[in-house]
Structures are given as structure tokens and as C-alpha cells.
Amino acid sequence: MWYRWQAPDSGRFVFTTYHSDFETLLAVYTGDSLPGTAVASNVVDPSQNPFGSGPCGPRISRVAFDAVGGVVYRIAVDRRSTSASGRVVLRWGRSASIIGRITDVSGRQVAVDTVRLVGDACRDSQSFGTIVFTDVPTGGSYDVTVALSGIVSPQFNRWGTSQSISPLAGSVTDFNYYQRTPAYNISGTVTMPAGDVSGVTVMCVSTGAGLFSTPAFFTGANYSCSSLPTFGDYVITPTKVGFRFSPPSRTEIHLMQHISGDNFTGTLAPTYTISGRVTNSTGTTGVSGVSIALSGAQTASRLTDLNGNYSFTGVSEGGNYIITPSNTNYTFAPLSQSFNNLTTNQSANFTATALLQLVLDDTGQMAAVDSMLLVRDPFPIINSANHLNRGVDRNTRVTIFVSNLALAPGEPPSSVVLNLIGSNNQTYDIPAEDVRPVPNLGFTQIIFRLPDNLVAGTCILAVKAHGLTSNFGAMRIR
Length: 478
Known about the structure:
Elements: E1 2-6, E2 11-16, E3 24-30, E4 37-41, E5 43-44, E6 61-67, E7 72-79, E8 91-103, E9 114-119, E10 123-124, E11 130-137, E12 142-147, E13 156-160, E14 175-179, E15 183-191, E16 201-206, E17 213-215, E18 217-219, E19 222-229, E20 234-239, E21 243-246, E22 250-252, E23 264-268, E24 271-279, E25 291-296, E26 300-303, E27 309-316, E28 321-326, E29 330-333, E30 337-339, E31 346-347, E32 350-354, E33 357-358, E34 369-370, E35 397-403, E36 417-421, E37 427-431, E38 434-438, E39 443-449, E40 457-465, E41 468-469, E42 473-477
């Protein structure tokens, strides 16, 4: 029987007769006439019986060759025996490989009796400690079975690659199995102060390949890691936030039996401090009133003081913690900081950027000028020399600058309020007289009048608008 096939492009392709009713022969030719020029000849896939039907049925023929795109090939399908008859199935696809390892959970190679590719192909691997199948046609659906004699109901679990071989899209080079049974238990007792084992966790983790990790189950102070795969090396580790254990861990090598008596004693561990500071974008001035949240193994909250400082004391050893600042008037960098398995005092600093931002210099002084005379501070409350101000008062008008502020259509300037704290700690809320953008600079200028009874000295000022409060800046009064 001849089959005419034109290669879609260049590459290695595989043809196979698996699922045929009798033993076949395969060959590939090119040329304009039959039989043409031979390209590749038959390969018989191995089975347990080389002279007849085996576990995979009749012996399977397979031929692989490097095709040239666009070339027409003629596939010859023949019968091995002249008396054979029945159905012939011809499958083909691009050549791919399925490669893997067979190990215990610690990564040591396990020699097995049979490694078989099944599904749209059936053949045994030639290496019984690894998985090696080459020239497997893509497009088919396959599985791999692993068998080991001398063990009742042996079980091998797949691990490693997530690539599928059902259907097979291309070569898979990390198709691995590990031996799971027979399985054993590791057990012991955890002794804690006052006998309180609540919150104690014991983990049994295989080393090496690290394929297996399981928590222990407790019955009172007794723990047990059950159904651990055979032959693995395991590290048994107890943990509880705020406690240390003696010994810190135990190791069982090449597990081949049930283990008991892996005991531990827990004692209180020291505590630590997580502290830090929140400063403005220049890094020089602390920002007060920022809420700092401690989350994780413990939870708490603090407000930064007048210098932007905060501190959490008595934080338990061994915990995982996250420090997060928050304030509706600021954004923060970084957004949070994490500390895992805390074993020392830690510091977490943050930079706050006001959503409504006063323009300041590096010393925290506002960029403020007399709105009529355009001179810097210190400002007089009443300026008799200010002949340009012809209003009912001669109070100084001050111009300051902010970013991220714009009035809504129809919104009056008085909706913007200047919160001013005099040098005597008296507080004023002063409505703005004029609010307008500064062309080409991205700032908004605000003009306000100094109050009559403001005392000489340095005052502190912030802008309030649209539910936000800006950062604070300093201004001098004479």
C-alpha cells in the first residue's frame, strides 16, 4: 500500500503503524516513479516478544526522516507475513522527544523494570532509570507508565514540567516521576512552656529535589508526619512565632521504616523593634499624623510624632511582618516594607509626597512673596509703605504656590482655606482671596491676607482644598 505525502515544510517527521491489526513494514521514497529513491527504512519498536505480539499488540513499525518542505514522499506500508490481513492505521507528525528522570523524593535515581510510552504509541524506554523516548509523532495523546517489581502496588507520581504530552505539541525534556510508595511515618513530641502547643507547626520536607513537603498532625503534644514517600531524606522542623526550639530541626536519611522519638523542646525567644521615620519629599522634614500599620504575625498601628517617627516594640521573633503607611493627604514611597523571619531590630523609612503640595525650599520655607511688592518674608502685618493696596485695610497680601490644585468651574477662591499656626500656637483658617494657575509652570498661586492679630515670629501654614490638606511650610512674620 502506497501513501503519497507532501512535506508542509522542512524538518524531521515520524510515521508509525500503531493500532494496526498485524505486523507491518514501513519505508519512505522520493521520485516520480515507484518505488523511487529510498529515504528511510523501517524501525521495529521493541516489545517483550520480538517475534510476535507483546504487551503493545503486534509489533509496531516506525520510520523517521528529515523531510524537505514541498517535496512529495511516498510511504510504503507492507505486511511482514504474507498471510497477514486486517486494518492498517498510519499515523504521522513532527518528531519530538519525551525525556525525564525517575527518582526518589530526594532526587536519587531509581532503577525500575519497565518504562512504557502508551496512548497513540506503545514502546518501552531503553533506559530503566530514566525516561527517553525519541521520534514520537506530535499531535498524538500519550502517557508514560512506570513499573517496579518486588514492591506491592508500587506508585510513581509525576513532577516537574507542566508541559502536556496529551496532545504532544513538541519535545518535553523534563517529564519526571518520583517513587511515592511504600510510605512511612515520622513522629515525636513537642514540649512547650505550660504545655501549650497551640500555634506550633511541624513540617517534614524532603531535601535534594525537594519534591515533598507535609505538615504534621498533632494529638495533644504528639505530632506525626504520615505517608512520607520511601527512600527520601527529610528535615523535620518545628516553628511557632516567638519561640525557639531545641534542636532547631532533625534529619532522617534514606527513610525506609517508621521513625518515632524525634522530639523537640520550645522556649520563649527575645522580641525586637521595628521603627522608622516618614519624611517629606526632600527627606529633611518629618511628616506627623501618618498612620503606620504592622500586619502579619502580629498586628498594631501607630501615628508618627511631630518629627515623623514611629516605633513598634515587642515584635515576636520568627514572624513575617509588613509595615504600611497611610494618610489620605499623601502618597508614600515605598508603599510598604516586609520583614520575613524576623531575627533582629529593623528600620523601615518612608517618603511622603503630599497630594496637595506646597512649593518649599530645602529648609521647609515656603516660596512666598508679598503679592504687591513681590518681596520675600519676613512680612509685616500692616504695611504702610504698600501704597499700591488701596483697599479698606493695609494688611499684607501674601502669594504662595501649590501643585495639584485647580478650582472647579464656578468654584470661588474662598473654597480654598489657609490653615495658619502663629508662633504663639494660635490657629487661623483664612479663606483665599485669589486662586489661579501660573502659566507654563504647572503651579497654582494663592493670595491671602495676613490676619490683624498675627504675632511676630515663624508661623506654619498648610493649604486645605477639596478634602485634602497639603504639607506644611514655614513663613516669617515681623
